[in-house]
Amino acid sequence: MFDKVWLIPIFPIIGVLINGLLGRRFEKINKSIIHWVACGAVALSFIVTCILFFQMLGLPADQRLYEFTWFEWISGGVLHTYVAYQIDPLSMMMCLFVTGVGFLIHVYSIGYMSTEEGREYRFFTYMNLFMFAMINLVLANNYLLLFLGWEGVGLCSYLLIGFWFSEEANAVAGKKAFITNRIGDFGFILGLLLLYTSLGKHGIWTLQFSEVFTHAHLLSPQAATAICLLLFVGCTAKSAQIPLYVWLPDAMAGPTPVSALIHAATMVTSGVYMVARSNILYSMSPFSMGVVAIFGALTALFAASIGLVQNDIKKVLAYSTVSQLGYMFLGLGVGAYAAGMFHVLTHAFFKALLFLGSGAVIHSMHQGLHKVHSHADAQDMRNMGGLKDKTPITYVTFLVGTLAIAGIPGLSGFFSKDEILWKAYSSPHGHFLLWLIGAIAAGMTAFYMFRLVFMTFFNESRVPDGAGEHMQECPKTMTVPLMVLAFLAAVGGYLGVPHALGGSNRIHNFLDPVMGLGPDKLLQKAVASVAHGAHAAAEAVHGAGHHVAEHGSLFAEYLLMGISVTIALLGIFLAYTMYIKKREIPEKLANSYPFLYRLLLNKWYVDELYELTVIKPLHGFSILLWKGVDVAIIDGIVNGVARIIGWFSGVVRYIQSGYVQSYAVSVVLGTVVLVIYYLIRAVS
């Protein structure tokens, strides 16, 4: 059955072709055909993924690797690249939640996009195209096909952010995302070229994962570090890390299902997946790992600080996503690859739930505001309040997601976040400061998420007069996915219960064969030839989790766990005090510290800083190139030559009078001149 892995990406691309070519006609006949095609394609991909996953589980851990070559893609000189897929624990884990969560969001979109008359087919075509690209990204068995999927999801992100492109802000947000990601992609491409040429010096001309990782010991430490850092540049854009995170909050201009699928659960985790997939390279470069950990920790704290005062419900979740992605990179950077991927999994559940929940709130707000012809902002939490009675299912499911992301014990976010924090402290590549930053960010997360809940669902209603009477719960196509995701957000964490709490950490054991170096690793068949230094370094990093877990102090782990939970509860208490009990406090604080408040409200003025230091100088330089170089010099030379020739032609055209007599006189005169010339020459 493994040789049927090509079915997983083929269904979504069939959906793209059917809805893309015939969707406009389906909308006139019966638009439910579009829904069945789009959702059915993703459902079939999910079913095939489940079959392959359970078949893989039936194999011994050291045999869970299968590579399927579909066809040759590029053949030239020493370069031979194939469209080939790889089935292993990491790719199957990613594919499971990409197709599973993707299917739920497709179903949710049926209700959310029902008012988009004449444009639904385009929306679902883009969504299916995204699924095709994302599946190729996670199933690829080589960096080139991964990069093709990487660019494909970027293209779909651009198309879907600007789906309502008639509004300028949406179109600008789409372009911002596209351009920012191109900056990161430039680093990614350089990393791939350096990897290819560095191995090529040793006669290994390949970008196939198994070949690259088998011969990784041939890379010098400097080359490995440069490759890892360049690849990480790509991750900072795709996975919204400092300094290239700025596109993600603006991407919330797209429809909410897009925010849930692409900008929360799947595409933005591509960078995390790529680093985890390249863990062997990163394990050879402790410096690169340190850079990843530091950038991840700083991003987690920085984005959380902005989320404290935002009033747009989707912007709060957007900065929350940036912050949670920082946690994932923090885990990867300290060598806890499995912990980072575990947080990818739990985050997919609760963040998709939270975005879809916010979409349900916005949908209800639009219903009420439309009835009373109000132009109030449906996403501004200052216009909400008291919605838990209007939308009870949305409220309960949203609360579950909030408890999960806040790290409350018993829910999924607690297990994954706690493991990252513990590894940030206990790993040989960890540090107390990394743990401290992560713990503070966890407290901020709890605060701003419960601030969101209290402002949206509690207290008196602040919706415009009359609008509340028309607000109601969303249709089942929207609430059922919420309930399924709430269930997963609640119980998903039990896949990785740590040893300290009596669990066996199944996620860690499941991913272990594809993480790090060692004789039992699936992608490291030639481990006997691995250079001792690289091997030792990788083992030191990869084995850190085992070593500390087995020999470290359980007391320290319990203590840090208790502190992080206490910080989270303190954040919830502060939010309760400020937005339920004493609601005058936020305004007093804003008035007491106006500079700090404006700083956070305006997102540390990072966009303005980029505008001043990057965009305007580049714009000015572009104008200089346009008017100074292109128009004045290049066009000037070309046009100048044309003018000179034109002037000269204007002069000499009088010679071409058309009179035979004139031509005869010219011949005679020319003959006379030549005769005189030769006579003078002969005499001299």
Which structural traits does this protein have?
684 residues, mainly alpha, two-stranded antiparallel sheet, 27 helices, globular
Description:
With 684 residues, this protein is mainly α. 71% of the residues lie in helices and 3% in strands. It contains 27 helices and 2 strands. The chain has a two-stranded antiparallel sheet with strand order 1-2. It is globular and about 115 Å long. Mean pLDDT is 90; it is low at 526-538 and 540-551.
Instruction: Assign an overall shape.
Output: globular
Number of strands: 2
Structural class estimated from helices and strands:
mainly alpha
How are the strands of the biggest sheet laid out side by side?
1-2
Elements, N to C (H/E): HHEEHHHHHHHHHHHHHHHHHHHHHHHHH
* Overall average pLDDT: 90
Rg is 31 Å
What is the share of helical residues? over 70%
Count helical runs: 27
- Unreliable segments of 5+ consecutive residues: 526-538, 540-551
**Biggest sheet overview:** 2 strands, antiparallel
Summarize the structure.
The protein is mainly α and 684 residues long.
SSE blueprint:
Elements: H1 7-29, H2 32-57, E1 66-76, E2 79-87, H3 89-112, H4 120-139, H5 143-161, H6 168-200, H7 209-214, H8 221-238, H9 247-250, H10 256-265, H11 270-277, H12 279-283, H13 286-307, H14 313-333, H15 337-371, H16 392-405, H17 412-426, H18 432-457, H19 476-491, H20 506-511, H21 532-542, H22 544-551, H23 554-581, H24 585-592, H25 594-601, H26 606-652, H27 660-683
Antiparallel strand pairs: 1-2
